[in-house]
Amino acid sequence: MKQTTRTLSIYSSDTAGTASMLYELGGMTVIHDASGCNSTYSTHDEPRWYQMDSMIYISGLTETDVILGNDERLIEDVCKAAKELSPRFITLAASPMPVMTGTDLDAIADEIRARTLLPVFPIHTNGMNSYLKGASDSLLAFLQYFCKENVEKTVRPSVNIIGATPLDFSINGTVESIRKFLMEEGFDVISCMSMGSSFEEIISAGKAQVNLVISSCGLAAAKYLFRQFHTPFVTGVPLGKRYAGHLAQELRKAIKNGENSFSCLYDRSIPQERENAPAVIHESIFASSLACALEKDLSIPANVIVPEELQISLYRKDADIVAECEDSLREILTHTGTLIADPFYQALISENQSFIPLPHEAFSGRCFRRANKVLAARDLSQWRDILC
Q1: Boundaries of CATH 3.40.50.1980 in the chain?
Q2: How far apart are alpha carbons 232 and 258 in whole angstroms?
Q3: 14-129 has which fold?
Q4: Which fold has domain 269-387?
Q5: Euclidean distance between the first and final Cα of the chain, in Å?
Q6: E strands, the chain, in order
Q7: What is the three-class DSSP state of 8?
Q8: Are 212 and 159 in contact (CB under 8 A)?
Q9: Which ranges of the chain have pLDDT less than 70?
Q10: Residues 243-277: tens digit of each pLDDT
């Protein structure tokens, strides 16, 4: 019963991560699931739905389809929709039921590819993993399919931003602020994967001299680009003023020496007194970057707490605290000072503990979107009195 939650929400699923990462790229995403579930993937978890269209569809899985394995209906429906809509590519993803019944997405993708002559790739989601895995697998599959040709690097310093989705960064201007900051630091932004960049910009990612990974869902893609184009990457979100400047220096350093840098992990100190120290809960790269910013901008080291259900791929084993479940998190938070986290987490701390809201759309959806502030390259001094 360790994984039972009584108070907290859960994070968006891998299927939502797939839909979010590929939202702006002109493809058709088909999630093999029951009719009515599209509202979860496309409206509750996807704020861009109200501003721009995207071809995200549900297969309308029925009980009969599940029992009899009627894959032909899915194939015919996808082919018919592709003929009418002419997408650049087709992505197939699965919800828990077709996974449980052993639906062969690879074979279905092969059949649709043969009939439509379009690029078709399956993403092996199951609805049980977090959004980070779905987004990571989707971006990696996209790049492996479309971003293979060797291209010349730019002459000027240039960068790809990798791992941007509204699930981590909302639509409050944070991604735009990151892009603006990089341009002010002298970098040409080749692409932003996958918010605010076109299909053509992203498939030209090999031209960049360095990659900035701002979420762990972009780490697999960055490793692929490193293998394919020898493009080094730096992990971190340019939060605060001084840490943002430090991250820009790390990008220049990576261009010069060609080596990867896990800046957000190792460019911060562990609090000497971990008991009652401030703590941050968020996606691991964002949380680590905010801890770096608090230390460099305010001289206040902070603990990083990462929920295990995020299937974290990047954390500092000697420093970061992994919360296995809600009960263990309650115990961890009794020894924490000021907590910086999504407002849902406030229910787990005592009335005497200070709290700074940091809405996380993948966790609380649109509930606190208006309270989501832009921290990229911004002054954090307003937090000093609360944290000290």
Answers
A1: 14-129, 158-265, 269-387
A2: 5
A3: Rossmann fold (3.40.50)
A4: Rossmann fold (3.40.50)
A5: 37
A6: 28-32, 55-58, 90-94, 120-123, 158-162, 188-193, 210-213, 233-235, 279-281, 303-307, 321-323, 339-341, 355-357
A7: coil
A8: yes
A9: 1-3, 311-312, 388
A10: 999 999 999 999 999 999 999 988 888 887 778 88
Name the CATH superfamily for 158-265.
Answer: Nitrogenase molybdenum iron protein domain (3.40.50.1980)
Using a 10 angstrom Cβ sphere, with 0-12 exposed, 13-18 middle and 19 or more buried, the burial of residue 270 is: middle
pLDDT, the chain, mean? 91
Predicted pLDDT at 112: 97
- Classify residue 270 by its DSSP letter: P
Chain length of the chain: 388
Q: Which two tokens stand for residue 376?
A: 């990229």
Distance CA 123, CA 278 (A): 38
SS3 of the chain: helix, strand, coil, percent, to 5: 45, 15, 40
Write down the residue that tokens 């502030």 correspond to: 373
CA 323-327-330 angle, 5° bins = 75
Here the tokens at position 380 are 């954090």
Q: Are strands 210-213 and 233-235 parallel, antiparallel or unpaired?
A: parallel
Task: Quote the distance between the C-alpha of residue 168 and its chain's center.
Answer: 6
Beta strand 90-94 with 120-123: parallel, antiparallel or unpaired? parallel
Nearest CA among 167, 170, 188 for reference residue 179: 188
- Asked whether the beta carbons of 9 and 363 are under 8 A apart, the reply is yes
